[in-house]
Amino acid sequence: MPDLSVDSTARAMVAALRARRISARELLDLHLARIVARNPQLNALVSLDEDRARAAATAADKALVAGGEVGPLHGLPFAFKDTHDVAGWRTTYGSPIFADHVPDADELVVERVRRAGVVVVGRSNVPEFAAGSHTFNRVFGTTLNPVDPTRSAGGSSGGAACALAAGMVPLADGSDMGGSLRNPASFCGVVGFRPSLGRVPSWPTGNHWETTAVSGPLARNVGDVALLLSVMAGPDPRTPHALADPGSAFAPPLVGSLAGLRVALAPTLDGQLVVDDRVAAVVEASGAVFAAAGARVTGAAPDLALAEDTFRTLRAWLFQASFGALLAERPDDFKQSLADNIRAGESLTGADVARAYAQRTALADTMRVFFASHDLLVLPTSQVPPFPADQEYPAEINGQPMETYLDWMRSAYFITVTGCPAISVPAGTTPEGLPVGIQVVAPHGADRFLLEVAAAFESAR
Fold it and tell me: Which of 222, 294, 302 is nearest to 262 (CA)?
């Protein structure tokens, strides 16, 4: 067996598997041992099926021995987010309503990752219907932070980020509406990438034309994020808004430099965000990393005032459309914050939704103009460090009360409604040792550039 551990890069694991220096069964055993050691405390992975995973690893080994062509993730252990439909595998969406639900078909992102050769071991835990950036539900309970188990792992891809950081899986998929890839990445000290709108298409979908939520990759480093994105991305004839670049356009290696880049550093987005002082200090310190690597760092921020009403209106409209009938039928089976968010959509008019889309168009144009004079925007991923796991959301930031479960997520969802790609990269810790990520944003469509920049920052740190 080569000098591999569950903390090795996914790329190193793939190389060792292809060279047959380790078998898929041996690699699975390493990860199952880590799952046994850490998952009972952290509760990151659910619906585990060791027997099915071992059968899949055996089949993966036979394929390697046969010498045929295999996928870019062949033999890697994997746990899909429990909001993504996986054929034949329990998929609960974190809701007691779907506690025993088993889909008949894979959704598109799952289809692509499975085709790439992964060995499925289970699912990663989520909040109820992926609503809220703290992973807890009445089916499986709460996922805890791998650095400090008294704290939140974030969400909605909290199980995925926690499992990555704890070495239970080498890669993870996620989705992001208001920060669900980015916030848990920041909380758990891993990398989470929200691609440009259309980069990772979704199917099936109830609405082709609403792309507030996107799927994307998580990993422990930027190169591995690029590896998973290369599998997830690319057009599909069923999704007319999908960007045309093939997934292979994002494959590692990443070769980037920070020299000469114009970096807008915005720890509080020029006062548009209330940010915990400990988080703001890490973001501010990241400016020195960029500068030392040759970037030109200035304090600047786009005006995203329209993002608040835009995001909240579209979220409430989408939640009401998706869950309104189910809430009316099963009102006791929804957590209160989600039920309130769904009901907020009932009073919206066509004029409200039209206003939100007009504002979203204006926000996209604001970013276009901003990126004419800046290459990157750097701001907090999350406005707070990981908060206590027994809270649904932070009660306050720097003494300022947070009235709803969304208030503390503005740094993420303000970027959501611009349509720009954004990546959360580990940047430091609080004095207590809690992870803090920075959010790096680039123009729409510049996903490869953003990955290269993030890899260069990662290296410079």
Answer: 294
**Phi, psi torsion values for 396, nearest 5 degrees:** -160, 160
> Cα–Cα distances in Å, from 407 out to 46, 165, 237, 424, 446?
29, 26, 38, 19, 29
Whether residue 306 sits in one domain with residue 283 = yes
Q: Higher pLDDT residue, 211 or 379?
A: 379
Q: Distance between CA atoms of 6 and 33, rounded to whole angstroms?
A: 10
Q: Is the pLDDT of residue 1 over 70?
A: no
Please state the pTM of the whole predicted model: 0.98
CB atoms within 10 A of CB 11: 18
Q: pLDDT band at 2, cuts 50/70/90?
A: low
Q: Do the domain assignments include residue 97?
A: yes
From CA 80, how far away is CA 427, in angstroms rounded?
26
- The radius of gyration computed from the CA coordinates of the chain, to the nearest angstrom, equals 21
One-letter identity of residue 110: V
Structural domain that includes position 223: 10-250
Cβ of 263: how many Cβ atoms within 10 Å?
24
* Active-site pick, 81, 95, 215, 424: 81
Count of CB atoms situated within 10 Å of the CB of 293: 18
Looking at the domain assignment, is residue 324 inside a domain? Answer: no
- Catalytic one among 23, 124, 156, 215? 156
Please check whether residue 157 is in contact with residue 192, taking contact to mean a CB–CB distance below 8 angstroms. Answer: yes
Say if residue 435 is in the same domain as residue 347: yes
Tell me how far apart the terminal alpha carbons of the chain are, to the nearest angstrom: 31
Q: Dump pLDDT digits (tens) for 327-360.
A: 999 999 999 999 999 999 999 999 999 999 999 9
62 is an active site residue: no
Asked if residue 86 lies in contact with residue 120, where contact means CB atoms within 8 angstroms, the answer is yes
pLDDT digits (tens, 9 = 90+) for 424-437: 999 999 999 999 99
| Residues near 20 by beta carbon (within 8 Å), at least 6 away in sequence | 64, 65
Q: Is 81 known to be catalytic?
A: yes
| 194 and 287 belong to one structural domain | no
The number of beta carbons lying within 10 Å of the beta carbon of residue 285 is: 14
Residues shown for the chain: 461
| Residue 318 domain flag | no
Could you give the number of structural domains in the chain?
2
Out of 250, 278, 293, a domain closes at 250
Phi, psi of 39 (to 5 degrees): -65, -35
In this prediction, residues 154-162 reach a mean pLDDT of: 98
Q: Which helix (H) or strand (E) holds 37?
A: helix 24-42
**Contact assessment for residue 251 and residue 450, using Cβ atoms and an 8 Å cutoff:** no
156 catalytic residue (yes or no)? yes
- Answer yes or no: do 245 and 266 share one domain: no
**CATH code, domain with 145:** 3.90.1300.10
Q: Are residues 25 and 164 both part of a single domain?
A: yes
